[in-house]
Write a structure and sequence with these properties.
single chain; eight-stranded mixed β-sheet; 28% helix
């Protein structure tokens, strides 16, 4: 049995995977931690899904067998930083971390380190847990011996307690671009906003427009550095794309032998970058086959998902089921005309997805 929970991560991603290994022991994987409030929001003194998940693990005597930090975007990593800053024993329930730090990338490609890629833990404005002000995140992982300190890149393959993990992104070129080009524009990730909402446009119109439009891929080196995973459990495939770039994902799948004529069959497809139109091209949906697409965002800060992305999916797969972890998106993204003109697709809320 495997269960996948899409935590309430605000406009970010935090995915908790729990499965039984070959000896029927429960194993756990956490991919990303969303924004700060996914763990704790000091502005209103509330705790989120990530803290509840961690507390539940402790009560059951379980650990996070693998923590994957896909990339350094605030809406993917800040919840983890917040957890470590508030919980001085966080490391005790983590067996292993995958994280492509700036220093590690610099050593890998033998280039100077990019200081904008450094991450620090801080005690300021947080509960008094003894965390040293300014402690480098990388040093924290090393000090507590939980970091699997190697580059996680396209082509990597691991078997973890019966679960197979293939890394589809990033490739070396994307890591080099991150190291050389990334500059911290702002403490907030709002500059990655995807333009105005297109939710009021009918799917039919968007599909027609797509026939004439050219795909423009996201150029963010940070998003391109995302660790994207193809997870296989008992012949069931699950795709977790973080904020990865679609052309690189398609190329990785082609290397594995998948084509439009021989698509990768998936139990579940977590769409890249919360449904951004610049991170999901039509070819990506043609080289994969599934009934279940998941979008993680509350859409209140950014304007994701783009409805144009969903139109691309429906043009390829009219029987698609869209799963949203926030009902605000579910209730507002489709028009009445959409349901009249496309009668086979479904839209529903998702919290936990389970396969026996």
């Amino acid at each position: 049995m495997i269960s996948i929970k899409f935590l309430k991560a605000i406009n970010g991603d935090s995915i908790f995977i729990s499965f039984l290994d070959d000896k029927d022991k429960t194993r756990n994987i956490l991919i990303d931690g969303g924004l700060d409030g996914t763990y704790y929001d000091p502005s209103n003194n509330t705790y989120g899904d990530l803290r509840a998940t961690i507390n539940s693990l402790r009560k059951k005597g379980e650990k996070i067998d693998l923590l994957v930090l896909s990339h350094i975007d605030n809406d993917h990593i800040n919840g983890i930083l917040r957890w470590f800053e508030n919980d001085e024993k966080a490391y005790e329930i983590i067996e292993k971390v995958w994280f492509n730090s700036g220093k590690l990338i610099a050593q890998y490609i033998k280039q100077p380190e990019n200081n904008d890629l450094k991450l620090n833990l801080k005690a300021k404005d947080y509960t008094n847990t003894g965390v040293v002000e300014g402690l480098q995140f990388e040093n924290y992982l090393l000090e507590h011996k939980i970091w699997d300190r190697r580059i996680i890149e396209q082509g990597s393959f691991s078997i973890m307690n019966g679960l197979e993990i293939r890394v589809l992104s990033p490739n070396k070129k994307q890591l080099i671009k991150l190291l050389k080009e990334y500059k911290e524009k702002t403490k907030d990730d709002a500059y990655t906003i995807g333009g105005a909402k297109d939710w009021n446009i009918d799917l039919k119109i968007l599909i027609e427009e797509e026939k004439e439009s050219k795909f423009n891929q996201d150029s963010s080196p940070k998003n391109g550095s995302s660790i994207a995973l193809l997870v296989t459990y008992k012949e069931n495939n699950f795709l977790f794309l973080a904020d990865s770039h679609p052309k690189q994902i398609v190329n990785a799948l082609k290397k594995l032998g998948y084509t439009k004529e021989n698509p990768l069959e998936l139990e579940l497809f977590q769409i890249s970058h919360h449904g951004s139109k610049a991170n999901n091209n039509k070819e990506l949906f043609e080289i994969t086959k599934t009934e279940n697409y998941v979008i993680s965002t509350n859409s209140l800060t950014h304007n994701h998902p783009h409805k144009r992305t969903l139109a691309r999916i429906i043009s390829v797969n009219p029987k698609a089921t869209f799963n949203f972890n926030y009902e605000y998106v579910l209730d507002n993204i489709f028009t009445n005309n959409d349901f009249k003109e496309f009668t086979e697709f479904k839209a529903k809320p998702i919290s936990v997805y389970t396969v026996e």
